[in-house]
Design brief:
With about 425 residues, the chain is an alpha+beta fold. It has 12 helices and 17 strands. It binds glyoxylic acid (GLV) and manganese (II) ion (2 copies).
Length: about 425
């Protein structure tokens, strides 16, 4: 194969351009699933795919597939991809590097004269981020069959609007039953992503190859107490949903630190109280709690402790509690031979690399259930992510794109 040239300036321009498509004031990126910004972002990416000569299709939940046909149509394709939706107050690299970087990888392969045997397919996954429905990776969960269409049909946002209403409004057609992929429909899946942690930068290592993805879970707790006048309702009479929520948030911290493992982490990232008036006792609270671990046993033990503590707190405070486990996922083990292939590519290119665990979740968590999968991590400044100051330099992105391109070429033949 001819040597590859990655046009990193062009890729950086595209990353910068996409970051301006946001619901917030740049440099803050907010692109929540099926918002106007998400829809415009999708159009931006689709146009780049068309310019790169890729054939586009979308499924019923809006997963986008951009395909470069292979010489041998009988062979299963190789897939890559990531997401462009972004949580509120995010940066410009999470997910985007894996989508725009994959387009650049394909352009570089085409420019080099490479003609793959297997098709190479880029997937832009719907709703990797959990913002709209409280659960992440909706697209890849449906593709892998981990999420059933029946359960997906029950998803409602905070205003009661369903996934079906949102997807139809976004122009998606067809039934959710049509999304699931047959097993081994791809020869491999490789996702390029920023590390979202500090290890690669600290160890001056250009590429991380993911062997395992930590097990995520999310609890939603709805608390109903009794509201009233902040001056008139005396303290012994109160059934304050906000205070019960505050105690639960502290119980989350206690439960995850109490496992004794630094790998157990818990975050009460959503905490809303109603009516939200300074002179009114909170009558309702909504908590969304994220608990993760590299080991299932300690993650599940922490989840159990949190649920027990929440029940005790709400009973004592006479607040009604409804708990939903939105997702409780096992970790993913990546494919050993694909990990070795990526390591071999790094060695050929003289790129310093190491195997690692992903503490963040990704669509690869679910693609790993369908086909051999792994991820290519690149460093990001101070390990910062899910913040507007998230940053990877062009010099850090380029090796990741190069390794992705060579890996796709190697697997596709
Ligand atoms: C993905 O964005 C995650 O929260 O790990
Ligand atoms: Mn993210
Ligand atoms: Mn991501």
């Amino acid at each position: 194969m001819n040597p590859l040239t990655i046009d990193i300036q062009r890729l950086q321009r595209e990353i910068d351009e996409l970051s301006l498509i946001t619901e917030a004031e740049p440099p803050v990126v907010t692109r929540v699933l099926f918002s106007e910004a998400d829809l415009r972002g999708r159009e931006f990416v689709k146009e780049l795919c068309r310019e790169a000569g890729l054939a586009l299709r979308a499924d019923a939940v809006g997963n986008i597939f951009a395909r470069w046909d292979g010489a041998n149509g009988k062979l299963s394709p190789v897939a890559t991809g990531s997401h462009i939706d972004a949580i509120p107050n995010a940066g410009r690299y999470d997910g985007v590097v894996g989508v725009l970087g994959a387009i650049e990888a394909i352009r570089a392969l085409k420019k080099s004269g490479h003609r793959p045997q297997r098709a190479i397919e880029l997937i832009i996954f719907t709703a990797e981020e959990p913002t709209r429905f409280g659960i992440g990776c909706i697209g890849s969960r449906l593709l892998s069959g981990v999420l059933t269409p029946d359960r997906a049909a029950t998803f409602r946002d905070r205003d009661g609007k369903s996934l079906d209403e949102w997807r139809r409004g976004a122009g998606c057609s067809g039934s959710l039953d049509s999304i699931r992929l047959p097993k081994d429909c791809y020869a491999a899946f490789v996702e390029l992503h920023i590390e979202q942690g500090p290890i690669l930068e600290q160890e001056k290592t250009a590429v991380g190859i993911v062997e395992k993805i930590a097990a995520p879970s999310t609890l939603r707790m709805q608390l109903t107490g009794v509201g009233g006048h902040a001056g008139a309702v005396l303290m012994p009479e109160r059934r304050d949903a906000g205070l019960a929520g505050a105690e639960i948030a502290l119980a989350v911290e206690r439960a995850v630190t109490g496992t004794g493992s630094p790998d157990t982490v818990g975050t009460t990232g959503v905490f809303r109280i109603e009516p939200g008036a300074v002179n009114s006792v909170p009558c309702r609270a909504l908590l969304e709690i994220d608990v993760r671990d590299t080991k299932l046993a300690t993650r599940d033990a922490a989840l159990g402790l949190i649920e027990t503590a929440a029940a005790e707190i709400c009973k004592r405070r006479q607040v009604a509690l409804q708990t939903n486990r939105l997702n409780v996922d096992p970790p993913a083990i990546c494919d050993g031979s694909l990990v070795a292939t990526v390591a071999g590519v790094c060695r050929q290119l003289g790129i310093l690399h190491k195997n690692m665990i992903s503490r963040a979740y990704h669509d690869t968590l679910f693609m790993a259930q369908v086909c051999p999968s792994t991820m290519i991590f690149i460093p990001c400044r101070n390990g910062v992510s899910h913040r507007p100051d998230e940053f990877s330099s062009p010099g850090q992105i380029e090796p990741g794109v190069h390794v992705l391109a060579q890996t796709l070429a190697q697997v596709a033949g």
